[in-house]
Design a protein that fits this description.
Distance between the termini: 82 Å
Strand order of the largest sheet: 14-15-13-16-18
Structural class: alpha/beta
Strand content: 15-25%
Radius of gyration: 25 Å
CATH superfamily of the largest domain: Peptidase S8/S53 domain
Shape: globular
CATH architecture of the largest domain: 3-Layer(aba) Sandwich
Length: 400
């Protein structure tokens, strides 16, 4: 080889190596292979354990719901093969590693589906199985990890081999499946389970107060926690002095209700938070075709607190209240999260303040939130949830 050729080869090799070191490491993350490899045999079933509410007991049972009871927009949570899950976890870890070529190479939901979602053949097999039992498949989420489907209680019994009954629990009337669902063994490698077959949902923890002042030993009047307290507790005053108020940032708060009336603007005015440029809008993210406007309901107190607390600390930020109505079996907040991420341009920050004990939430429900937050992280979204407000009391009594 001549010297010129040697130099040219060295330059070319250097360019190739440099490209490999500066581009996202997607080569190993090609589309997954099909994991549904056996014919679907309805006589060979597996049980999806950990998906029955502890309230579903004989003493609470008030009989089966009508077969024709509509169960719209149920969510079927899928699962990746273990090796693909590990690769996705590694990729997410690399996104915040400044030494990695993947640093901040966020993935849209569609890109996640292409590289880390189930193979299209598996999606087709699952949707065809659902349709064979009379269900309507409404939407396959672009990350290929969730399927929205609708049907009736009778179709659920026939396909998933569990009955939906009325219950009386915690002084309220509910519906719930009375046993763990079952599916054909051929689908088990790809299906985590139905997110829920009941109407027990994550709940708000806000506690109303008649006024923000009260009589006490601190002088007249005493105040509950107010924005100025946050400025002191979290030492944000230096940021304000530097002219940083959260301007240019969007924080989405996840709700199953809208905020009430002019409560946010009243809060702004009462505590001197106007004039910083902060705004509030309400959206109903509907990329999945399953999000309707919930209006206001008793949870509007939680929505008020959530939008107000963002403004209390970042009075110049744009607050986006993202709300979806609950369906009979699906929490509207989860729908909102899934749809925001799937739209392809999610907000940089999401916050949700509804809680549910993991034991109560069930295996598929826990997997659904884990998957949704995982997808958010891969898309560059920082997700915050409330923690510690009520400790162990977040779980209803296990003897209900």
């Amino acid at each position: 080889m001549t010297r010129k050729l040697c130099v040219a080869f060295a330059v070319a090799l250097t360019f190739v190596l440099s490209s490999l070191l500066t581009c996202p490491l997607w080569a190993e993350d090609s589309a997954s292979r099909s994991i549904i490899t056996q014919p679907i045999d309805e006589t060979r079933l597996v049980t999806l354990a950990g998906n029955t509410r502890f309230e579903a007991k004989a003493r609470n049972d008030r009989g089966p719901v009508p077969d024709e009871l509509p169960l719209d927009h149920m969510l079927l949570q899928l699962k990746r093969p273990a090796d693909l899950e590990r690769r996705f976890d590694r990729y997410i870890d690399s996104l915040t590693d400044k030494s990695s070529p993947n640093f901040r190479h966020w993935l849209t939901a569609a890109q996640q589906g292409e590289r880390y979602g189930l193979a299209q053949e598996d999606i087709d097999a699952i949707t065809q199985w659902l349709q064979s039992h009379g269900f309507t498949v409404g939407y396959v989420y672009p990350n290929r990890m969730v399927i929205d489907f609708s049907g009736t209680a009778g179709q659920v019994r026939e396909a998933f081999h569990t009955e939906i009954h009325y219950l009386e629990a915690h002084g309220e009337r509910h519906i719930a499946n009375m046993s763990d669902p079952q599916i054909p063994a051929a689908l088990a490698p790809a299906v985590q389970g139905v997110v829920s077959l009941h109407d027990f949902r994550p709940h708000a923890t806000s506690e109303p107060r008649p006024a923000y002042t009260f009589a006490g030993t601190c002088g007249t009047p005493c105040f509950y926690l107010v924005p100025a307290d946050f400025q002191t507790i979290y030492n944000v005053s230096p940021l304000y002095t530097a002219g940083i108020y959260g301007q240019g940032q969007t924080v989405a708060v996840i709700e199953d209700t809208n905020s009430y009336g002019d409560d946010w603007s009243t809060y702004q005015k009462t505590f001197g938070l106007t004039g910083y440029g902060g705004t509030l809008t309400t959206v109903h993210p509907n990329s999945g075709g399953n999000c309707s406007n919930p209006g206001t309901n008793p949870n509007d107190e939680e929505a008020d607190i959530d939008v107000e607390m963002v403004t209390a600390v970042a009075p110049g930020a744009h607050v986006e209240l993202a709300s979806c109505a609950n369906t009979i079996t699906t929490f509207g907040g989860l729908i909102a999260i899934q749809n925001l991420i799937s739209a392809g341009s999610p907000p940089a920050v999401m916050s949700m303040s509804y809680i549910e004990c993991e034991v109560s939430n069930g295996a598929a429900g826990n997997a659904a939130f884990n998957s949704a937050y995982q997808s958010a992280a891969a898309a560059g979204v920082s997700v915050f949830v409330d923690a510690g407000d009520s400790g162990g009391s977040g779980s209803p009594s296990m003897v209900s």
